[in-house]
Design a protein that fits this description.
This protein starts with 18 loop residues before the first strand and ends with a helix. It is an alpha/beta fold and about 240 residues long. It has an eight-stranded mixed beta sheet with strand order 1-2-4-3-5-6-7-8, with helices on both faces.
């Protein structure tokens, strides 16, 4: 489930100023984070939870586009990723995510000024932490209904519900998310079926928005259409 050493980094150069920071978790693990502060008073802050593979460098192409938007952002690497100590697990990632939120709170950023962004596996953490919160918004990129559902698509003859410890049950928890939600998914996704993203959108509470495409695979293309959808959603929260 977790692939910290997998690398699809294409040697992108980061074009936005970042401060490399450390987030200390409640169970005393030090997490690497990249923080960009544009204007805390004027703009919302994106808290980005990445997927199950690769390092922070793998997300540079996304962060460069964040620079074009009126946002601050923090992206953290999970325990066991990007040189961090610890072993990833569902419980551990929830602790990591909450610790990143606490770090933002420590900067004086209020809950209602935070946009929680989950990418693939990160949607499980984003959805979990967004339940019954007053966040400005929630962005879910290529979300799954649950990790059990996702595993069944690859291993239909194995009792994954009995074997899989980390379940990340998005389809239950999305019902408890009250913030505006943007769901992004491509119909060509060969890892998380598009039907799952569509199902999460159907279950989600209003206000909700979608960016669905015919051509995008699991790694969605950050083209002008996706950027426009992100910008429109973020501006709607102001």
């Amino acid at each position: 489930m977790y692939h910290p050493n997998e690398n699809n980094y294409s040697d992108d150069k980061i074009s936005v100023h970042i401060d490399k920071i450390k987030v200390i978790t409640d169970d005393n693990i030090e997490l690497l984070g990249w923080y960009h502060q544009k204007d805390l008073q004027k703009y919302k802050t994106i808290l980005f939870f990445h997927g199950n593979a690769g390092s922070l460098e793998n997300r540079i192409h996304k962060l460069n586009h964040f620079h074009e938007m009126d946002v601050n952002f923090l992206i953290i690497a999970w325990r066991g990723f990007s040189g961090n100590k610890g072993k990833p697990s569902e419980k551990g990632l929830y602790i990591d995510g909450q610790s990143a939120l606490n770090w933002l709170y420590g900067k004086g950023i209020k809950e209602e000024n935070i946009i929680v962004y989950g990418e693939s596996l990160g949607t499980g953490v984003a959805t979990h932490l967004s339940q019954n919160k007053n966040f400005a918004g929630v962005i879910l990129e290529t979300p799954f209904t649950s990790m059990i559902d996702a595993a069944k698509t690859f291993y239909p003859y194995i009792p994954v519900s009995l074997l899989l410890k980390d379940k990340f049950d998005n389809k239950i928890k999305i019902k408890n998310v009250r913030a505006p939600v943007l769901i992004m998914h491509g119909e060509a996704d060969q890892i998380v079926p598009f039907s799952m993203g569509k199902k999460i959108y159907e279950i989600a509470n209003e206000p909700k928005y979608s960016y669905f495409t015919k051509h995008d695979n699991h790694m969605m293309e950050y083209d002008k259409n996706l950027i426009k959808a992100l910008n429109s959603f973020i501006k709607s929260l102001n």
